[in-house]
Here is the input.
Amino acid sequence: MGIETDQAFECLALESDLRSYKAASEVLKRIFGARPEVILLTNNPAKRVGLEQNGIRIAATEPHIPLNLTDAMKRYLIKKRERLGHDIPF
Here is the structure.
């Protein structure tokens, strides 16, 4: 097995998540109005923060768990929880 994406970014001296939520926030604002409120489907708390910092109200955050969760996927999600603080409900 190789290394995780966040580890590869560290090796390259990059931040583990370079995403910007500005464009997504602007799309939501254009579709739903000046200050939309959403239910966010994610395990990544940084997504919530990124959207809120760009004017999106988060009514709730629901975890994303694959329907056909394999042992390999479960191990991957547990690593995300341990390394990046993702909200994994198991």
